[in-house]
């Protein structure tokens, strides 16, 4: 953990700005440039869960909130242990941060440097790229395959030529909602070049239903050079509570831990522990609900002969047949905010899966804009 003195020393290097950059740069609602927005606005632009925090988490937060005047440092050992246990890991194999974003930042900071690049696909989640750019670290970006998946062979080739680096892979990928399959992931881990670490962002792993989508956590348990990040922002509905974690072998965790900004909120921590106590029910129920709503949307798009990338997350990219920025800009004034553009996929509009009622409104507004 950084001391205040160490934190102040790093401000001159831009470290404080680096850690705030993704939230500042990609604040979804601020990006909606419309005058007076409808009061019943439907926000489908940030891949949030419309379910919000589980009931058990809300109760736990109400209980601990009056004591939040204390730091509660003595509780965090048990809290971190609970997070590790939820994934059959030891506490020394995990690091907890403010969302998975903080852990991703720590990994970029620890495992890239002027001679070791960040290697990833494009488009993907911009946070790691922005951190690497702000730190002055080299980056190598590779394109997607025709099915919008990552070219794992190209990633390995680039890492080999660079004599090592950090490969970042979001699976399922944001913004495409496509996956890196079990077979490709196995090959990638088996063929990691020397001095190369694989960073797998599994923010959306719980929304998939394909047997080809698997977690990279087994590689962590095997002691491979793999870091996996998870978040409680998505299926657990705790985006504003800012809790996530990373999993890796102890020596990698030890290199990242000093780069954290501090402990998470005790209120958020209690929310997470309460959710983990009912983890299986929460994940099963929310997954089933999301899948049903997502299938209904896909069926609706197929009926209208609209193309889209087969989704494996809680969002979908729809081909609107024209510039997606202009299309998306026309929707908020009608009461629906879709996602921002993701070049070079200029005709694809990213849409978060909301409640059934929200998606009904989305379909109405989308069709009005589509038909002009």
Question: Which helices and strands occur, and which strands form pairs?
Answer:
Layout: H1 4-11, H2 15-25, E1 42-43, H3 55-64, H4 76-85, E2 94-97, H5 99-111, E3 118-121, H6 127-135, E4 139-142, H7 152-161, E5 165-170, H8 182-190, E6 196-201, H9 217-221, E7 226-231, E8 244-247, H10 250-256, H11 266-277, H12 279-303, E9 315-319, H13 324-329, E10 336-337, E11 348-352, H14 356-371
Parallel strand pairs: 1-10, 3-4, 3-5, 5-6, 6-7
Antiparallel strand pairs: 2-8, 7-8, 9-11
Give the distance, in angstroms, between the N- and C-terminal Cα atoms. Answer: 54 Å
CATH class of the largest domain: Alpha Beta
Number of helices: 14
What is the total number of structural domains?
2
Name the average pLDDT: 91
Say how many strands there are. 11
Spatial order of strands in the largest sheet: 2-8-7-6-5-3-4
Structural class: alpha/beta
Sheet of most strands: 7 strands, mixed
Stretches with pLDDT under 50, minimum 5 residues: 1-30
CATH topology of the largest domain: Aspartate Aminotransferase, domain 2
What form results from the Cα inertia axes? globular
Q: Helical content, roughly?
A: 40-55%
The helix/strand series, from N terminus to C terminus, equals: HHEHHEHEHEHEHEHEEHHHEHEEH
Structure description:
The chain has 372 residues and is α/β, with parallel strands linked by helices. It folds into two domains: 28-47 and 280-371, Aspartate Aminotransferase, domain 1 (Alpha-Beta Complex), CATH 3.90.1150.10; 55-277, Type I PLP-dependent aspartate aminotransferase-like (Major domain) (Aspartate Aminotransferase, domain 2, 3-Layer(aba) Sandwich), CATH 3.40.640. It contains 14 helices and eleven strands. It has helices at residues 4-11, 15-25, 55-64, 76-85, 99-111, 127-135, 152-161, 182-190, 217-221, 250-256, 266-277, 279-303, 324-329, 356-371; strands at residues 42-43, 94-97, 118-121, 139-142, 165-170, 196-201, 226-231, 244-247, 315-319, 336-337, 348-352. The chain has a seven-stranded mixed sheet with strand order 2-8-7-6-5-3-4, with helices on both faces. The protein has a two-stranded parallel sheet with strand order 1-10. Helix 8 (182-190) links the parallel strand 5 (165-170) and strand 6 (196-201). The protein is globular, with a radius of gyration of 20 Å. Mean pLDDT is 91; it is low at 1-30.
